Every structure is written in structure tokens, then in C-alpha cells.
Amino acid sequence: MLLKVLLLVIFFLVMVGVGVYSRKHAANVESFVLGGRNVGPWLTAFAYGTSYFSAVVFVGYAGQFGWKYGMATTWVGIGNAVIGSLLAWMVLGKRTRMMTQHLSSSTMPDFFGKRFDSKALKLAASAIVFIFLIPYTASVFNGLSLLFGMAFDVPYSVCVIVMAALTGIYVILGGYMATAINDFIQGIIMLAGIVAIIVSVLNGQGGLSAAIEKLSEIPSDVAATQGQIGAFTSILGTDPLNLLGVIVLTSLGTWGLPQMVQKFYAIRNEQAIKTGTIISTFFALVVSGGCYFLGGFGRLFDSEAIYKPDGSIAYDAIIPTMLSTLPDILIGVTIVLVLSASMSTLASLVLSSSMTLTLDFVKETMVKDMDDKKQLVCLRAFIVFFIVISVLIALDPPTFIAQLMGISWGALAGAFLAPFLYGLYWKGVTKTAVWVSFAFGIGLTVVNMFVKFISSPINAGAIAMVGGLVIVPIVSLVTPKLETGKVNQMFVCYEKKL
What is the number of structural domains in the chain? Predict the structure, then answer.
């Protein structure tokens, strides 16, 4: 216990120390929210990766989908690396950096407002960001607190409040640069930690071959492969169609999430994106691939600890139960690993939300003559507000982790992905098409929460994203176009030499 506490104390001191150090990089609004658009490729790539993967992935998704699909869950990690990182950087990185700088855009709602010449779109997007980032933040709190309870026997509420307070301190002090530097440190911990944990867990089962052999002997209880032996070690798993939905949501979803795309706004220059692409892809392959690979062995740890009183599976308890068998030193490493992943994601979420409310809502509608100093005060106040709201939800979570994240990602990426992607490449996207995409993504997600015509919120989110990619070009072809001269002026930035 002393060792675990010591590791945590050192970790917390480093995080707060970085916040204090980064205060000089948060003297004005652009420095606070984007690091002055001068963040290098290593910091940006690690910030992208650590914002991508949190306790939601490690505890919620890896546990739930590893239990359902077995070793085939590793495909989710591969999809995250190839689609969510490699292709995201290649397709979005350079164009996002160039156009957002050309339009002087600091947030995704601001991009929609300027790219489609619509203040209403900007306000609507800012409302969507604020509302649907909250359940995601709550899910991060929830996942981390389950691990803390396992390792320290600390009350859930204490874990949530302490983590929220520490995250708030370093974000308020140092803004984007503090989160980027801390993300780099946290990313190193995540890379080393996940490898050590996988090796240790598999050694506890007699090695990789022995673990696979044990898993292959468990008959499937999933409807699509009921009673089949070896389904949990097959290449496509027990339910390939639903597994595909998970891959689409968790991989393609990053293309439309404000806190992820914002990393491209802040990178130093277009050349740095090439380096960042390689680093980010490697990071995702190790961390996400490792998490889902580990989760695939969840059924080897079937015990009373993972069942609810009604006999159903408590998916969020699977990974903590698996890790409870590790030596104390590795449990300490695990806690710091998941804490690293979660705090970096939280920092990114609260910063994105406060930016949106301050720059896209308050400044646009309530205090139009807000100077730089007042904007910084407002940004920091909203960081506190957003953390408090998220904590209140996390203290009484409405559902398990994967559902919370599925709702958040489905709504945000379902609304934003298509108009953002097409808006970077195609001059023909219309204002009406953007509104329809917003309505479709949010409408499908919210209605499905109550009606449940699509049984899984994961699949609902995936359908919202893919549907938007079809809807936007169709609606754009039959609705009034934006003024040609204005659009051409926006795309001039791509003609400049790098």
C-alpha cells in the first residue's frame, strides 16, 4: 500500500508541477487554448493518443467487448490505430491545420460558423459540444474510480472528487500546453505499463499459448455462435457484425470529436504532421491494441466478483478483477497507467468544453466586447463548472461505461464528422446539409436512448456517423450553394506553399 500511495503522490506532484511551469504559456487566449499554435509533433501525437484512450477503453470497452467477442476484440485496437489514428492524421491533419489557421478558427463550432458563414450553426454546434461531452467525462470518472476501489479500498466518491480537483488545477494553471506536456509524460507511462501488464497477466495463466488453449475450450454463449467451441479464439469472434459496429464507432468517431480534431489546430506546422502521424499510429497500436488484446482473455477470470446480484455480468468489473491478481507493484503501475489515460482525456474534454462555451457562446451572444483578460477568466470559470457538472453525474452514473461513451461519441461524431470532413475538401457543401447532419446525428442518438429501436448505443452511433457521410453530399446537391467568391477565398489557403 505504501508503494502504491508513493507512486500516486509522485504522479500528482509531477502533474501539478507541469501546470505551474506552463503558466507562462497561458498568458493570452490563443496560448491558453491552442498553445500558440506552436506545439511540436511529439507532444501533439501523444496528446492525441492520450485523449483518445482512457479508463473508458481500458476498463469499460476492453472488459465488455473482450468478454463478448474474445480475442477478435483485438481488431478494435487495430482499427483504432489504422482508421482512428493513421488515416485521421493523413486525411484531416494538414487540411485542418491550414484552413483553421486561415479562418482564424480556434474551435470546431467556430470552424462551422466561419466555413459555412452561419452564426446559428456556430451556436448550435457549441450547444451540442457542451451537452454531449458531459456523459463522456462522467464515464471516464466512473471507470477510473472502479480501479481505485479495487486497489485502495477508497470510496468511489472520494476517487471522483480528488481526480477532478487535480485535473482542474493543472488545466486552469497551464491551459493547452500543460495538458500537452502532461499528456507526453502520461503517454510514456501508458506505453510501458500496458506491455508490463499484458506480460504479467498472461504469465499468470501459464503463458500466451496456455491462455489461448484455455480460452478455446470455453463454449460461446453469444446468440450468433451459441455453444460453439473455439469461438472466443477465432479470427472474427462470436459476433462479427456487432464487432464491426464497435470498430466503426471507436475508430471513425475520432474524426468528428472536437477534443481530438483540436490537436491539429495547435500543431506547429504542416511538416510536423508527417512525424506526428507515425508517432500517433504507433501509440494507438500499442495502447489500444494492447488493451483490447488483454480484454479478450476476460473469460479466464470468471468469478463471483464480476456478477451483479441479479446474476447479470458487471462488465466494468472484469478488468479490475483480472488486475487484482497482479503483484502489488504492478497494481500500482496499473493505477498510474489508467490515471494517466483518464486525466489526459479529462483535461482535453474540459478544455474543449470551456473553449466552446466562452469563445463560441458567451462572447458571441452575451459579452461581445470581452477582452483577452476577461476571456481567460471566463475560460477558467467554465473549466470549474464543467468539472463540477461531470462529477455530479459521475457520482450517480445512469448506466455502465460503454453506453455512456457510445451515446456521447455517437451524437458528436454523428453530427460533426461528415460536414467537417466534406467542408475541408469540397466547396459544394451547403449550410442546409450541415443542419441536416446535426439533426440526424443528434436525433438518432437521443431517440434511440428512449425508444431503443437499435438495441446497442454503439451500433446507433456507428450508423449515425456512416449515415451522415451519405446524407451531406445528397442534401448538398439539391440545396442552395454558398456564395462562390467567399468559398473560393476560404480554399485559397491550400494553394499556398508550405
Answer: 1
